[in-house]
Amino acid sequence: MRKNYFLLLLLSLSSASVFAQSPVQVVDDFLNQTQRKGTINSQFDYTVVTENVVGNNVGDYVKIQQTINGIPVYGTSGTFHVQQGKVINHNENFVNAIVDNTLTVTPKLTIDQAVLGLAKSLGKQYIEIDPKNITAEFKKSAKTYEDKEYVAFLKDSPSFLNYYNDNGTIKLAWVTLAEIKNNDHIDKLERVYETIIDANTGQLLAKKSIINSCNFDATASKQNVYHNNPEDFKWIEKAYATYSPSEESSLLADAPLNATYRVIPATQQSPLKSDFKLLTNTYDPVASKEGWHKLIPEAAARNSSLTKYHTVGNNMQVGYDKDGEFSDIVFGIFQLLIAAGDQFVKNEAYGGEKLLFDFPTPGNSMSYDPLSYTEAASTQMFYSMNSIHDILHYHGFNPKAGSFQMNDGDKSRVIGFSTSGLGKTNTVTNNAVMAYAPILGKNPVTMFFTFDTLAEGAGILEIKDGDLKGIYKGATGNNAGFVFGKSTPVSAEMVLINDNTGTDSQDGCESVVNGDQLNGKFALVNRGSCSFGVKVDNIKAYNPAGILVINNVVGDFVGSMDISNPDLTIPVGGISKDLGDKIKTAISKNEKIVGTMPSSNFKYRVRDSDFDSQVLLHEYTHAVSNRLSAGLISGEEGMGEGWSDYVALNLTQQAYHTAKDLINMGEYAFDGAGLRELPYTTDMKANPHTYDKLKEIGAGENKQHPTGYVWALMLWEMHWKLINKYGFNPDFKSNTGGNNMALDLVLEGIKMQKANPGFVDGRDGILMADVVLNKGENQCLIWEAFAKRGLGYSADQGDPLLRSDGKEAFDLPPTCARLGTDDLEANTVSIYPNPVKDLVYINSKDNVEKYEIIDVTGRVINSGSLKKDGQVSSVSTDSLSAGLYILKLYTDKEVVTKKIIKK
């Protein structure tokens, strides 16, 4: 077995002597034993990806990747948890391939040739982009590709050779970033992929989007409920606010620069819950040893006027996107350029030599001109994301786990854009984006946009006569050629389109057959399965006065629609299913329905999402979960959006919150409402959703947000059960208190779960994290939390790559179903001692033929026949780690189960 150690093997348990094996050596011995048993083939090789201490030095975890001929095997991962010199838990998805001379080690195609071959094989144009040469001439020529399909590649982009398991055939492949544009793509904000290309043929083997586009399509109403008065709980915050780690570091002669920021505190939800405050000594000297402000050489080389007194440092760099310049480049030219965000970031906020970032703020106003507060928005993002970086350091996301630091950890920093201004050609709103590809080592790039909601009484559609007379709210198209609130309202009669194809002949996903009826009319089209841009393309040629998209689910249709036609000069709006059905009924009765888009009193309420801590936390966590999982979190049942929601909920919780409070995500960004279908709460009457909600969501793309919402709802149940047991601790850097313990379990669970997990895998990762961090103290509590929402002991996730094939269950494992006594069955059999150290003895009048030892996840981890001495038999527990187990005994009369506790 050959090993390639990427990292120095420095970690071991703190109590071990200098002669003890390192965790990696323990894993290596374990793999050698596994090879001898034939579980993996004798030619298995690997490389160490990462190694880290678990919790407060309670153990170690080692993550490895399989290699063949010294080349990594794409998507393979093995995670091993080491305690006291033993591997106590592991999971992996290695390829059991036989290495022979038929496996190519040298590619026939260079990376450039491979991407060109990919474009040809897909029938698309090939474009190579130099991110250092984005001139006005380039931008002008790039407009010619707006309606074309292409494959774009960044010059000198990081690319690596991997082997890829293509349905059992091992192929040499290039892994790189590429933008693959299809004109019918459902979400044009997610077309940059980590792309796996056959290195010999140029064929596409697989692709995975690197962009988390949180284009919020809110359906939650304004139903936040808080059961306690915040003023009654301020004493708790004061009791914990006695020490700031930065106070100590500020006394050092060579201490990093300390700054002062006028901001919303990072652990407060938004200006709705807190005033802007002037904060000093905010960085943590342990988590950010070099402080937050530092002139990084890479940044200085691109901008000679940049200084350490700007919003730039070892952890991140933030600038504001003046006039939407960068968003125009990304969403109006080539989205791939988001991966080169560090080339474009500028307009960083400047605090002067005193590092005083005290800029005018919008206060608690919910409607203002974001362009008046660009420096405040950049300052907020820089402060908040650095704060998140420092907090998560204490919960397992530190340099050895790959945290984002240029001079340590992942050797990268987060690049942030406060996109306060609307682009001239692409008015992206109601969105926040995180782009990150862990395997390719690029800096995570995040962008925050303005959020707009309709003012009270305003609507995107007004019907002035008849039974449907009224003003109706809805969604708006993001085409810059017609700007709601600025362009002159348009009136026209409404006509249903007909494409005479597919299961829905009115969804506009195919060529329209009644185009002659649309001239000068409002074209009504069902939402359907294709993108808004496809519908608009199929309708606009017939010169409609406007386009109205009818929602396909019950509830308001709000937010903005990405219609991929920035120059379109007609209004495009979205209305509710209820209103759409009524209009269809009227038209079927030959009634003439005339509408005006928008209403004469139309007005937006506009805010900057940089001031919403939950949105900031949500996006940052996308990069964290990708990093901790090595990017192996694909599949329809992926939990990325859920982890992001949960971390945002956890770190903005206050002492006055209760389990049954109704808490919306993004309450500030969405004008007091929320970004999820229902608020987060443990109250089943207020939010009854369970695991089977995934079946209702159904299969298909762009459903990751409602999927993640269900996962976060389960985590919120666990969160509150732990608080009920251990209390709430407002010191978010602590590892005590139920809220902090829950965050530890969630982040460690990501490390411990299987590659590309489903909900059951995620649950089991958390259960194992509790065994490692807390000696299994909270197993039944965790089971109860998940079982309440349908992820109980008998739940079956099916294929994690599929969303709707799971089966919910509300039961508990035998270990938790009857814990009143040590004996879970009648006393025909007795065991001792319990708790047990090395051997458990069994006294039975009946003949015990065999035994099984079952862990908390229901896996049989040991079994065999019994050695008997009279009526007494014994079972070795030497190989078990500390925790709770079931000993299942098969007698000649019955099956008996016993709870055993291993010390």
Q: Which terms summarize this structure?
A:
single chain; 903 residues; alpha+beta; Nuclear Transport Factor 2, Chain: A; Elastase, domain 1; six-stranded mixed beta sheet; 22% helix; globular
Would you give an account of this structure?
Helices cover about 20% and strands about 25% of the residues. The chain is α+β, with helices and mostly antiparallel strands. The protein folds into six domains: about 90 residues, Nuclear Transport Factor 2, Chain: A (Roll); about 100 residues, no CATH class; about 230 residues, Elastase, domain 1 (Roll), CATH 3.10.170.10; about 150 residues, Glucose Oxidase, domain 1, CATH 3.50.30; about 190 residues, Neutral Protease Domain 2 (Neutral Protease, domain 2), CATH 1.10.390; about 70 residues, Immunoglobulin-like, CATH 2.60.40. Helix 8 packs across helix 11, helix 12 crosses helix 14 and helix 14 crosses helix 17. The longest helix is centred in the last third of the chain and has 23 residues. The protein starts with a strand and ends with a strand. About 5% of the residues have low confidence. Pfam families: PA, Peptidase_M36, Por_Secre_tail. One of its GO terms (molecular function) is metalloendopeptidase activity.
Gist of the model:
This protein has 903 residues and is α+β, with helices and mostly antiparallel strands. The chain has 18 helices and 40 strands. The chain is globular.
